[in-house]
């Protein structure tokens, strides 16, 4: 986007205008009252998101409406007989259809009947929320709670005065035989934009509460596993306190348990985190309703606190228990590894002591062998001298071989001993140089 400026300023950041306009991205629709609405929220896979966008483009082309931009995640348009609001979220996509007129019975001929049936049948994804809502002007019949309850199949209703008393909102938080939940809004003094905001908040409460509960089945499946993990860890720590334990075997068991727990944490981390975020949005949207009690029925906030909060707490506690179990396993593993390291160190110390003793014994043996070697070498040399002197005597020399050999023994011993000593000295010098 290029804008004229009066001052020589630096270039705009490439995301400046997109980020600036983000606060206007999900503006509430402007409605002409009274109005009937049908709201659909569908859970999508990554591949189905592109299909959903193309499917919306097909609807726009059918009615000659300019489709949304390729990177848009929200879209509003008025078609021939209905108004559409489309929103794409990280995990789901929402369609809200508005029809401006009213009937005697609020949930007869819902807004969805004005949408092409063949197009609806091809919507990608799986329905998480389907709701019909009607905004009706106040009349004598709508003052009586029993009459209002008849519109909800005589189920107990939940409701309150909302938007500072400008309207009253009622629901039973049940799926009726047509597969849709219902909201009834009685208009006292709603403005057009105010009605759009109120409808959007009610739909978001319904969608976010269901999305928050996606983690509940997972939590129920994991509760026995976290209990089992606690028991296994307790058994391992009890074995650690016993004598004659095999620390390496205990460490293997602990490592296996740690791997299982970390696998559960990694596979459920996103879902439990999303549950916490969705529940915060539910609480925020309920606060935005600005409820005032209607005598005789629960407010939407009270109903959610009593019915939804226990399920959310179950998810939070399951996630927290796995996190605490992981920390306990880590502490136990660190203690066990320290014990294993100390055991190995003691074994190494004993091995070094044994090796030192063996080295001393080998040195003594070597000295003994060297002494024997000196005697052996001396005996051999004396034998050679004796053979040589005997040969000289036979050729006529006047010598006594035995005398010469006997007198040679001390000298040969000395020479051999000095030679071996010199060899040792040369070896030590080489080791010092290296």
Rg over CA atoms, rounded to whole Å, is: 46 Å
* General shape: elongated
Strand order of the largest sheet: 2-3-4-1-5-8-7-6
**Distance between the first and last residues' Cα:** 75 Å
- Strand element count: 8
Mean pLDDT: 86
Low-confidence stretches: none
Provide a count of the helices.
10
The helix/strand series, from N terminus to C terminus, equals: HEHEEEHEHEEEHHHHHH
Secondary-structure-based class equals alpha+beta
When the domains are counted, the total is 3
> Strand-residue fraction?
5-15%
Give the biggest sheet.
Answer: 8 strands, mixed
Helix content: 55-70%
Provide key terms for this protein:
434 residues, alpha+beta, Methane Monooxygenase Hydroxylase, Chain G, domain 1, 8-stranded mixed beta sheet, 10 helices
What does this structure look like?
The chain has 434 residues and is α+β, with helices and mostly antiparallel strands. It has 3 domains: 24-207, no CATH class; 215-350, Methane Monooxygenase Hydroxylase, Chain G, domain 1; 364-422. 58% of the residues lie in helices and 13% in strands. The protein has helices at residues 16-20, 46-62, 117-121, 145-150, 192-212, 215-240, 247-289, 300-307, 309-394, 401-433; strands at residues 35-43, 74-78, 83-88, 92-99, 126-137, 158-162, 167-171, 181-187. The protein has an 8-stranded mixed sheet, covered by helices on one side. β3 and β4 (92-99) form a beta hairpin. α5 packs antiparallel against α7 (247-289), α6 runs antiparallel to α7 and α6 packs across α9 (309-394). It is elongated, with a radius of gyration of 46 Å. The mean pLDDT is 86.
